[in-house]
Every structure is written in structure tokens, then in C-alpha cells.
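hey m, so remember when u said the C-alpha cells were messed up on ur end? i reran from scratch. heres the input so u can diff it against urs
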Amino acid sequence: MNGKDEVVKKLIQQLRETLDLMHSIKNEELKEYVEVAVFDYAKEQKLKSSEIKYLVERIYNAFRGYDILQPLIDDPEITEIMINNHKEIFIERNGRTTQVDIQFESEQKLEDIIQAIVSRVNRVVNESSPIVDARLQDGSRVNVVLPPIALKGPVMTIRKFPDKPLMIEDLIEKNSITEEAADFLQKLVISKYNIFIGGGTGSGKTTFLNVLSNFIPTNERIITIEDSAELQIKRIPNLVSLETRNANTEGRGEITIRDLIRSSLRMRPDRIIVGEVRGAEALDMLQAMNTGHDGSLSTGHANSTKDMLSRLETMVLNGAELPVGVIRKQISSAIDIMIHLTRLRDNTRKVVSISEVLDVKDGEVELNPLYEFIEEGETETGVVLGELRATGNSIKNKTKAQLAGIKVEEPMIVGEQLD
């Protein structure tokens, strides 16, 4: 522990001894007490103004914020905070992971912060239920794993989201997708094509789902269903957001994604957006898409579009013992478009394929690739060069677009000239 940490610990202890009702004091009043304690210490030690500012913020956050995590949470460049135990903290900034030179004063302090986070969203985590998903007030995703499951101490991972949700223009600027492909997807969303987004961990599925949701007409009623609410849909006034609930200490009261999907069907939705499917709820999602809720969106973990189809089969089998042929027929008739995202080796996130889902042929779900990412090498600094390009295949199912009065242009192959 360095000198600053010792000073912080000493002043925190001093304030705890003098303020018995810390939890009932208003934030402004607490800030004044902290400033007085720090200023008194600063006079003795002749501290610089920057050091005084650091101590005030650090001590105040220990009582009312997220302690040493607060500056990391406030830093807009940090996208992930990974706490392996109270002494090991890593961050991801601009796609690169590094360890930070800070640590909690004790394991108990880290556990206190964890309990404060999960209790604010009515979740419970303890030794008998040591794994939980939660979120911060700004919508950032939180995953917690406690001992005895976590061998080195409490583990917490925070996936941060930007204050201002990314728009399609931001993704085009970052070269995550081309303007042509973005326009194409916008027409599909408006036309109520059912779209499924696949990708690995950290590939940007939730962000992309949020971006596509912004294409939905504002006069529609949307139901969002998530394990932990993360979507930031701002444009839709008629929006209902549902979130799962864990079982209580007696093992009762659990509300699953499946429960929420079934309930949502009785809420007169125009579209249903399922944040992510991981298990048996895939069957309910497919059935919802197949029973008149066109334009529905969802995401799932997979390494490729074909892998995503296989995973969906497995997930459906978790919910019902159906013949594989029946499951594949369900998938092919429910999902219209599959989008796949990848985090490349240079840490950029890109749309690498857009495919149309056709019927079952020779026992397999047939795909019609519309756009594929073509890699063209990399720069000296390791930046991957390439672009999402049209394959030359045209979309076969144009019925939904025609019913919506939208003309889906034929994707133009790069290098092809207009007459």
C-alpha cells in the first residue's frame, strides 16, 4: 500500500469515528466534512491543490460513490473494469487491457461495494447464491462471482456503456459497417424483417442491437426483454422494458426470460426485442417471431453465422424434445436475416457478414450471403484493412419490404459500374 492509500485510510477512519450517522447525512454535508478533514491534514503536510483534490474525491467516493472504482467508472475512455480480487484490478481502454495501480483497502470493502451495487437493482448475491448479473445506475453491465466459487476473492466485471448511445453514423465513422450496408439494414428493420445478431464476447452485439432499434418507427409499441437491462432505446415513446428476477433465498420468485417472453405476447407488442438468448428461451423467441410479431430482434453468442444456427438448435432442444428437422424449419421460418459481428485482432469491432435465412434444403438451413467482410491485409501498426462488401446475391424474400412499400435495392458489388 502506497503513502496516499495510508493517508486515505487514516482520514476515512477518522471520519468514521466522528460521524456516527454517516448514512443519514446529505451528500453536500458529507462533502463539507471530508473537505474540512482533508484541509486540516493539508495544512500540516503542505499539500498541493491537486493532492487535496485527489484526497477529497477519493474519501468522498469511499462513503458515497464506488470507492476507488469511481474514477474508472467516470473515465469515458474505459470500456471494461475487471476486478480479480481486492488487490488486482484491470481495465480495457481503447481495446487494450492493462492493470491499474490501485486496490481496495480490504476484501471486505470490495464486498461492501458489490452488495451496494446488487441491492440497488433488487438482486441478491451471497455464499449460497454466489453468481449474479446486475447493472449500475448508468446502465453499465455488472457480473459478480463470490467465494467459494471464486478462489482468489470476490470477482466483479463491469462492462461500461457510453452516456450517449452510439448511432449508425458512429459505426460508419469507425468503419464497423459501410454506409451501403447500413442503409440496407435500415430498410429491413423498417420493413419488419426478423433479425438475429450473432458474435463472440465483446464483439458489440448489444451496441449493434441498440443501433438497429433506432430504425424502428416511433409509432410502434416495443417490448424489450433482458437479463439485466442494458438497451438504451430513446426514440420510442411506447416502450416497455422487462427484466428477469433471480430466486429469493428460499428459492422462490424467479422470473426467467421464458416467462417474460410469454407474458409479453399478451401485452400487444408490435415488436419484441430479446437482449440475448442463452437457453430454452430460444424456442419461445422463435415462436413469437412465427406468430405475427414481425420485426423482432435478438442476439446470441457464436463464432460464425453457421455456428449461431447450430447453437440455436441446441438451445431449442433445452426447452423441448423436438426432431432436429422441426427445429430447423422453425428457425428458417422465424428468422429472416442473420448478422455476424467479430472483434478483430486489432481490437476493432466489425460487421463481418449479413446473410438471408432461406428454407431448409437437404436437411440444412440454407443461407444466402448478402454481405461479407473482405480482409486486405494490415498496416505496419497492426490495423486490419478491409471492407464489408456485397456478394452480388440479391435478397430473395422481398415480400415484407413490398408490404411496407419499401424498395430494397440490389446490393452493388464493389467495382461494378452503374450504367
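this time it looks ok to me. The first helix runs from residue 3 to 18. if urs says something different then somethings off w ur setup not the seq
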